[in-house]
Every structure is written in C-alpha cells, then in structure tokens.
Amino acid sequence: MTITLLLENVSCAGCVKKIETKINALPDVEQALVDFPQRRLNVEGSISNDHLIHALTEIGYRSRLASNDIEDRARQKAQQTAQYKTHIRNTLLALGVGIPLMIAGMLMDEMTVRTPQDQIIWGIVGLLTLAILLGPGRHFFNGAWSSLKNRSTTMDSLIALGTGAAWLYSTAVVLFPEMLPENSRHLYYEASAMIIGLVNFGLAMEIRARGKTSEAVERLLNLQPKTARVIRNDKELDLPLDLVEAGEILRIRPGEQIPVDALVVEGNSLIDESMLSGEPLPVNKSVGDQVSAGTLNKSGALIIKAEKVGSETALSRIIEMVKQAQASKPEISRMADNVAAIFVPVVILCSLLTALLWYLLGPEPHLAYMLITATTVLIIACPCALGLATPMSVMVGVGKAAEYGILIRNGQALQSASQLQTLVLDKTGTITEGAPRVTDILGEQPNMLQLAASLETASEHPLAEAIVRHAQARQETLLPVERFKAISGRGAKGVINNIKVTLGNKAWMAEQKIDCSRFETQALTLAEQAKTPVYVSLDGQLAGVLAIADPVRQDSVTAIARLKAAGINVIMLTGDNPQTAAAVAQQVGVDNFIAGVLPAGKALEVEKLQQAGSKVGMCGDGINDAPALARADVGFAIGNGTDVAIESADMVLIRNSLHSVADAIELSRATLSNIRQNLFGAFIYNTLGIPVAAGILFPLTGMLLSPVIAGAAMAFSSVTVVSNANRLRLFKPGQ
User: Any idea where the HMA domain is (predicted)?
Assistant: First the structure.
C-alpha cells in the first residue's frame, strides 16, 4: 500500500534525509521517499496514516494526508501562490530597511558607535532590524529552533545563525561600546536585513520556477473533465465524474473531452489522441472501437459505454506512473543526498573554525574580521542547490517524456537509458506491425488450410492468428481439435477428425521425423522474401507450406537509423528462421540479428550481451518478451503490447513506434546531462564559495566577501539550479 503525505515545512536537502531516515526506520515501512520539489512523502508499507503523521511531528515537520489529485493540486497551487506573495512581501520589507542602511553605509565614513548620540540612533536601527528578523525572517528562526529541539540542522539554521550573530554583535556594540576596541565597533545591521530580504527573494523565485516543473502533470490532470453527460432512463444528465459507473451509457458531443475509457456503441468521429500518445493526427473511431479518457472528440457525436472509470482509466494510471517516477531517485542522486545529510553541520563547523583562525591569526580588528568571515561562511553555503539538483531535472524529464507518449517508471530508468550501448529489438510487433497475414499457400490438398486453421484456434501465437483469420476470410469451417499440444517457439500438433495434424517450423518437423525436402527450395525462397514458412503435415506426411508475412512498420527504418546515429548497437532478436530474419534485418538496416531464439532464450541472449560488458536495452511487446524486458538494464514495452510485457518494462511507449525508443534515449541523455550540470554547479559553488567566504583570498587581495553578497549568491544558487532544470522543458527530439 502506498501512502502519500503533503509536507509543509521542508526547507532543504537536510530535511529530506532526516525525514527519510526517520520514516524508513519505522516498523511496517518498506520504503519512504521524499519528493522535495513537490514537498510530498511517498511511503510503501502497512503503517497507519496517524502513525506516520505522528512520527513526522516528532521530528518537527507538519504534514497531512493527500486526497483527491485535483483538489490536492489546487490546494498546493493556492499554498504556493500564498507562499510566493508572503516571500515577496518579506523581501520588500527587509530590503526596505536593508537598502537604505547599505546606502548610508556607503555615504558614511564608517558605520560605528563613537558617541552617546550614535548609540541612540543605532539603537533605533537595531530595533527596526530586530523587527525584520522577527517578521520577514521569523520562519528561518522558527525552522532553526524546531531543528535544534530535534538535535538536527537545516538551511534555516545557517540563516538564523548568520543573521542572528550579525545582529547580536551589532547590538552589543551599541549597548556596550566601551567593552570593545574602537576599531571593532563596526555595525552589521544592514547585513542582517539584506540577507533576510535576498534569501526571501530567492525562495520566491524558486517557488515560481518550481511551479513550472509540474506543468506536465498539471496538463494531464486538466485532461480530465469534471462532468460527464450520462444517459439514464432515456434522460441525459450532466453528472460529476465521480458518480459515473462502469457500464453506463454516455453521450460525447463534438469538441468534448472523453471522460472515461469506453467502447463506442453508436456514431463515428475523429479522436485527437495526441495528449496521450504524442501522435498529431486524429484517429477515426466507430462502433466497436475503444476510446480513452482525456482524448478529444473532434467532429462527430458518439454514444459510448463506460468500461473503466476514475482511477482505473488509462489516463489516471498514466498520471500515477508519472507522479511516482518524478518522486523516485536515480543512483546519481545518492552522492548528493549523502553530502546534503552532513552538509549543514559541516558548514557550522567550518564557520566556527574560520572564526577561531581569524581570532588567533588574523589582523586587527580581530573581532570584526572574525564576525564577517564566520557569518559569510554560514550565509553563502547552500544545501538547497544540492537537494534540488537531481529531483528537479528528473521531475521535468519524466514530465517531458509523458508529453511524447513515454511513461517512465522511475528515475533510475532515466539514468540507465542514458548509458545504453546496445538495444535488442524483438522482431514481431516491434520492428514489424505485429499483424501477420498469409501471403502464399504451397500444396495441393484442399483441406490443408481448414485443418491448419482448426489446429491454430487453440494457439495465441500471432502467426496462428494470421492462419485463422485467413481461413475465416475464405469462409472455411473450423473443426474441433483433440489432444492439442503446443511447443513454444516450435509449433503445435493435434487430432482433427482422426487426422493427425502437425504444424510449425522446420526444426519442429525434424523432431517429429517429417521429411520437408519436397518444399525446401520454395520455403527458402519465401524466407529470403522476409516471409515465414510454416510447414503443415497430415498423418505424418508433409502436405504443404503456408507463407506468412508481417509488414515492417513504416517508420522502423528511420527510427533504427536514428538509434545507430546515436551510437547504439541495434540487434534484432527473433524466433524466426535465419533466412527470414536476414531479409527483415536488411530491409530495416539492422546489421546484427539473432534468429531461431526460443521465448525462454531471449532473456539469456540479453544476459550474454550484458556479460560481454554492454549496457543493454530490450524492446518488445509480447508475453514471451517479459523475461528479457525484466532482465535488460532498461526494458521498453510497446504500448499495444500485453499487460505482462508492460508490467515488466521500465518504460512504456504509448506510440507504437520505435521513434519513441530513440526519443526516450535522447531525452534520458539530456536529463542526465542536466543533472550533472546541476550537481557540478552546486558542488563547485559550495566548494569555491565557502573558502572564499572564509577569507582565503584576503592575503592576496586584502578584501573579504561581504555577507550581503554571500546572501545574494546563496539565494540565487538554488534559483539557478531550478532554472537550468526548466531548460529541459524546451527539449525536442531530433527526428
């Protein structure tokens, strides 16, 4: 069972680590992950909601249970808007005090206390600054106090310590100037006010930028209409979607979005499915066709019968999958998480060490230099940039993938897809359309097709379906089968009207000791034309050959060319004979293929490639592809594939096109590149920023970094990370 809680006072990556550590340690919890950008906690396990909320309260975090997606999003959006306005107001108040003070400091020779009159003036300024700390800066001090009570530290701790230390030192100078050397009586009220203002502004910009990253899910949620027109007792009623049940009849007018997954029972129309599949062209739907929730009825009126409603619709499952993937973490994030967990305590330690070194080794005035450097170290460090570096990119990347009809199960799949070197493609239904048809019949016996089709009625193989369809099209009467037996990847046999019928490939015939030499030459010719020869034997004697062809998808050639251009080694895997496999491979531009592979052997072939040192992806659609999809580093399931294949895959491709695989790999590489840029920026910023703040350049330049500049740098470092992640929203695959 998955429980989702909405978190209210999570401020940095340190909070994320603390929450995950606490919740993962609870009994009945299998896994807990914090979605930092969305401020959500997803918990797998049998723990109760109350127990979870209580555990979070114990470590100082407020939370509430997530409910309806649309309501939660609306509430979260309203909350973010309110937070944004609050931060902007706090910014204006703090800078309204800080900027005049900073200008005054530039115009005055020095901001210091020399006379009783100075004490009165600066005392008033001190009270004004205290109002800023307790007003616009109140949430930093509340967060720091809450963390302290729980014996931990967060970004709030750094801001509160830095601004609080600057204010306390300045107030000590104002109240007791005679206790300090004259050259140590500098005041730093403007630093406290400016830092509070700049950090609030940074938080406001982060909220604004973060809102853009969730647009993909917002768009999917907006596809769900709030009402549906239901026909009950010959009356049409507009009802809330929650009241619509499976089996009910609905009317869909032109221009309306379809509210449920349904079957068309009357009418025909063009349906725009681009919002789900990424395909721009509308699809014609008529009686007997399936329509999906969220798609748009373009022209005609339809009467539909609801089959899946609410959370059971394809659209709802897509939204849930996207949300889960956005909240998951790729392996690359672990280092950042581990660093973030100890980051704030280490920064505080660096600040104390900096203060000590300046006090013991620095020039006069010791106290002033000590305060400036220690405060600047506290203020410049930014754990938020580290915490946001990976989840923001994953969130945008997964959302962007959904726009192109690619559903990614987790963040790790993104990272693995970016590293793929080899892609194994199943032939039938992946490279080809998966709709084989009989093209040639060799043999004179008039009842051969009827008997072959009768035998194949018990089989689920695509070639079997092609034989049955062909017989039905020729109005053959299908007969009952006795003692049916099918061998996967070989063929089938049974008894029909006391005739022993055996059907399958050449290897199966050899096992049954049936001589195929009579049609061997013709069969080879058919195979070289990319047709699959299926041998038919009646009472132990070869009766003939059925040739079956599965047309290659129109865009397979260009998609495979894209994959090869991206440096991917493309391999075709098929249970077909080598001649047919070679013909298809040549037709689509695949240089390497493995033919005659039994269903059970597909996973083994993937494993062999992995053992050779290659990162392997597998793309398939059938039940027999599921083990290979699960065994591959990344499994891609074509959208019209079986449920088993889709459940085994890491990525589900709604479009029935190999271009989606190329898009997924291209987007994965762009996302991982974006994550690396963010992590590099965050690490470099903190690695260089902290030593500079500590005064490492002072011996060379004689200058120290101002706490105000440090505050501005810290505020904009997290905004930079979020903005860089948002660049992925501009991604377009290069078809």
Answer: 1-64
Note if 272 is an active site residue: no
Inside any domain, residue 54: yes
- Of 426, 550, 633, 663, the catalytic one is 426
H or E stretch covering 574: none
CATH of the domain at 267: 2.70.150.10
Domain that holds residue 18: 2-66
Q: Which of 290, 319, 348 is the last residue of a domain?
A: 319
Give one DSSP letter per residue of 5-31, joined into a string: EEES---SHHHHHHHHHHHHTSTTEEE
pLDDT tens for 545-570 read 999 888 888 889 999 999 999 999 99
Q: Are 580 and 597 members of one domain?
A: yes
Establish if 502 belongs to a structural domain. yes
In a domain, 727, yes or no: no
User: Are 556 and 657 within one domain?
Assistant: yes
For residue 641, report the phi and psi dihedrals to the nearest 5 degrees.
Answer: -75, 180
- Specify the pLDDT at position 426: 87
Own/partner contacts of 545-548, CB < 8 Å, gap of 24 or more, are: 545/440, 545/441, 545/442, 545/443, 545/519, 546/438, 546/440, 546/441, 546/442, 546/449, 546/452, 546/467, 547/438, 547/439, 547/440, 547/441, 547/442, 548/436, 548/437, 548/438, 548/439, 548/463, 548/466, 548/467
Please state the rounded mean pLDDT for residues 313-339: 76
Q: Are residues 244 and 273 in the same domain?
A: yes
Read off the pLDDT band of 250 (50, 70, 90): very high
Number of domains in the chain: 4
Domain boundary among 549, 580, 607: 549
Say what percent of the chain tops pLDDT 90: 23
User: Given a cut of 60, is residue 641 above it in pLDDT?
Assistant: no
Query: In Å, how far from its chain's centre is CA 657?
Result: 20
The reported pLDDT for the residue numbered 183 is: 67
Q: Is pLDDT at 427 greater than 70 in this prediction?
A: yes
